[in-house]
Amino acid sequence: MFYDLDTGEINEADIVINPYPYSETGAALQFSTDGTPGTYDLESTLAHEIGHLLGLGHSHVIGATMQASQALNGTYGLPAITERTLSEADQAAARSLYGPREKTGSIEGRILSSVGGSLLPAIAAHVWIEDLDSGKVMASGLTSSSGRINFNSVPPGNYRAMVEYLDEAVKEGTLLPRRAIANRLCEVSAFRSVEMRSSLRVITDKPTPLNYVLVPPQNSAPVLIARFIGLNGELSSVPVPVAAGEKITVYVGGEGVDQIPGNGLVLSSPLMSIDPASLTREEFYRSTPVISFTVTVAANTPPGDYTLKLQSNTGEVAYLVGSLTINPDN
Predict the structure, then answer these.
(1) What is the pLDDT along the chain (330 residues), one digit of tens a residue?
(2) Is the separation of the CB atoms in 176 and 185 below 8 Å?
(3) Are 194 and 162 in contact, with CB atoms under 8 Å apart?
(4) Contact between 60 and 142 (Cβ < 8 Å)
(5) Using alpha carbons only, what angle is made at residue 58 by residues 54 and 62, rounded to the nearest 5 degrees?
(6) Bridge partner residues of 281 (DSSP)
(7) Beta-strand (E) ranges in 1-51?
C-alpha cells in the first residue's frame, strides 16, 4: 500500500490472496463461490481484504465483515456467506474515513479508568453503540492511547453505548504507541463490561458527548468469559446466522457460562426473545462449560447484527457483540 504521509490518502494498493491455503493440521484448503463445505467463501474473503485496502482495521463485532475470523463453509452446517454483506458497523467505519458527513451526527468523548486513586486513559477498550429501537449494532471502535473514542457520520437517532475490556485488543494494536501497549499489558486489574449510557441521542451536525469513568474490580479476576457461540451443536468464533420468523437453539461456551440463570440471558433487540426455561447445561465439551437455549426471532426483525448479553448469578456481565446476524436475503 502506498499513501500520502501527510493526508493518509491511498495512492495505490494491492490485494494478494494465497490460492493454496492450508489448515492448522496441514490439510489443503480451497476457495469457492457456491458454499462447498470445507472451503472458504471467495467473495467474503475479498470483501474483508478490500476493507483493509480502504484502511479499515479488524472489528470486534462478531457479525462484521471486518472481524478477524472467517468461517469455513459448512460451519454450523451452513454456507459461510454472512461476511459478503457489510454490517452497520462496517459501513460506519468506512463512513468515518470517507464520509459523507451531511445530515449525520457524531459521538465523541473520553473513557477513563480509576486505578489506585488516579484517573488513567482506558486504552484499547472496545466501545460500541446499538440502535435503541431495533437493537442492531451500529458502530464499534477501540479507544485511543489517550482513552478517546470518536464515531463520525452517525445517523441521527437514539442509541445505547457499551464498553468492554478486551485482553486480546493489544495483539493487533500497532495503531497504539508501544508505551501505551506496554502499560495496558502491565495493568493488574481491568474493568468489566459496562453499559455506559442507556439512552444517547445523536442530532444532525452536532457532536454528542460520551464520557465515562470506569471502576475496575478489586482483587478479583473476571469469572464470566464467554468465548464461543454456535448452532446445531457446534461452537465457533463466528456469528450465528438467523432468519426473521424462526426459532433456533443457540449454544454458548466459555468460563463461567454455567453460572448464568435463565433470566440472565438477554438479546439486544426487543424483537428477539429467549425462553428462560429452555436453558440447558450441555456436556459435549469437556474443556469448557457450554449452555444452550431457545431464541425466537420475530417476523419483522430487520437485517443486522445483534448482541447477546450474559449476566451470572454474581451480577457479572459479559457480551457477545453482534453474535447473531440476519442477512438482508434471509
Answers:
(1) 888 899 878 888 899 988 888 888 888 999 999 999 999 999 999 999 999 998 899 999 999 999 999 999 999 999 999 999 999 999 999 998 887 777 899 999 999 988 878 899 998 999 999 999 999 999 999 999 999 999 998 999 999 999 998 765 444 443 444 344 334 433 435 677 899 999 999 999 889 999 999 987 755 677 899 999 999 999 999 999 999 999 999 999 999 999 999 999 999 999 999 999 999 999 877 788 999 999 999 999 999 999 999 999 989 999 999 999 999 875
(2) no
(3) yes
(4) yes
(5) 125
(6) 291
(7) 2-3, 10-12, 31-32, 40-41
Closest CA to 274 of 167, 146, 149, 135: 135
Cα-based torsion angle of the residue sequence 74, 78, 80, 85 in order, rounded to the nearest 10 degrees? 180
CA nearest neighbour of 35 among 68, 69, 88, 84: 84
Q: How far apart are the first and last CA of the chain?
A: 36
Give the cell for residue 121: 486513559
Element (H, E) at 98: helix 88-98
Distance, in Å, from the CA atom of 49 to the CA atom of 201, rounded to the nearest integer, reads: 33
Which residue matches cell numbers 472467517?
70
Helix axes 88-98, 42-53, angle to 10 degrees: 30
Q: 60 in helix, strand or coil?
A: coil
Neighbours of 101 (CB within 10 A): 13
Q: How far apart are CA 274 and CA 53, in angstroms?
A: 39
Whole-angstrom CA distances from 34 to 30, 40, 188, 326 are 12, 10, 48, 19
Q: What is the DSSP string of 167-236?
A: TTGGGG-TTS-HHHHHHHHH-S-----EEEEEEEEEBTTBEEE--EEE-PPSS-----EEEEEEETTEEE
Q: Give the containing element (helix H, strand E) for 113.
A: strand 105-115
User: Which contiguous run of DSSP H or E holds residue 297?
Assistant: strand 290-297
Strand partners, 265: 310
> pTM of the predicted model, to two decimals?
0.89
